[in-house]
Design brief:
globular; 299 residues; single chain; 14-stranded antiparallel beta barrel; 1 helix; mainly beta
Length: 299
């Protein structure tokens, strides 16, 4: 009976995950992986930055969502242009989605800071393994294909403005999908902002927020507060409305290498059945400027 109950609950979660706010990949450590949510972030540092992240959502559920992300971006032509590569792999139950996206940004001085305008273009491949489904009607032609695969072309855009100690951005990661079932993909409108506040020598605070808006669903707000100690250790906490309380830790192992971890404590009804979600991030900076003495990576 417990297995049946968990299975039915997971199916209900999968339906909501697919139909509404989780069509675009979302993670808790987006603060340390800005390219994921905004193509205009590409090339915002004078060196090449890379990161690998893995997220396991709703632990204790068989077939629960898992997400893996590879991100690489860097500046070109004296910092006027930026380019970034994103590779996603999302798995939920019998469905797998792999996406490769190129990001381009044009950066220019605006007032005391820098403004960037970005574009994203990519290809998404979705695979549904119908062999893993228990069928009550063996004659249903929908389930005769075994495995179904379809591709979708996606385009997105964003804007990002930052000074040394503050930033603000808006983006639509998937603005124009083309291909099968494209009409079912709902644009996600994102707005971000944050800044750094020095408390004392060796201690700084970073308040930030992310607002996510999707048509016909309630807006979701992430509010975060990080503390940076001795320019090496980030400790953070966040609140995602209607979903989770998040704890985060990032350690700057060397000037080039950083390691981060986040845990989501689910506060919705899903929390009655799951221990939450876990994320692990490894980042590495390299190339021209990577070894030079520089300010901490605030944004």
């Amino acid at each position: 009976m417990k297995l049946l109950k968990n299975t039915l609950l997971l199916l209900a979660l999968m339906a909501g995950y697919t139909a509404a706010a989780q069509q675009d990949v979302m993670i808790s450590q987006y603060l340390f992986n800005g390219l994921l949510i905004n193509p205009a972030y590409a090339g915002s540092h004078p060196y090449t930055s890379s990161s690998v992240l893995h997220r396991s959502q709703w632990a204790q559920f068989d077939g629960a969502p898992t997400t893996s992300v590879l991100a690489v971006d860097g500046a070109m032509r004296n910092g006027s242009f930026g380019m970034g590569l994103l590779v996603f792999h999302d798995q939920l139950g019998i469905t797998e989605q792999t996406e490769v996206a190129l990001n381009f940004a044009y950066r220019f001085r605006l007032g005391a800071g820098h403004m960037a305008l970005g574009l994203r273009g990519g290809m998404s491949s979705t695979l549904a393994d119908l062999n893993g489904v228990s069928i009550w009607d063996p004659g249903d032609p929908v389930y005769q294909g075994g495995t179904q695969v379809y591709q979708t072309v996606k385009f997105g855009a964003g804007a990002y403005y930052h000074l040394q100690r503050m930033y603000i951005g808006v983006s639509v990661p998937t603005l124009l999908p083309l291909g099968p079932f494209a009409e079912t993909m709902v644009p996600h409108y994102l707005a971000t902002a944050g800044g750094m506040v020095r408390i004392s020598n060796g201690v700084e605070l970073k308040p930030s927020m992310l607002l996510k808006m999707v048509n016909n669903t309630p807006a979701q707000l992430d509010i975060n507060l990080h503390a940076l100690f001795q320019e090496k250790i980030w400790l953070g906490a966040g609140w995602r409305t209607g979903d989770a309380i998040v704890s985060m830790l990032e350690y700057q192992v060397t000037p080039e290498l950083r390691i981060g971890y986040a845990h989501d404590f689910t506060i919705s009804e899903i929390g009655n059945y799951s221990n939450g979600s876990n994320e692990l991030l490894i980042g590495f900076d390299f190339g021209q400027g990577a070894l030079a003495k520089r300010s901490p990576r605030y944004f």
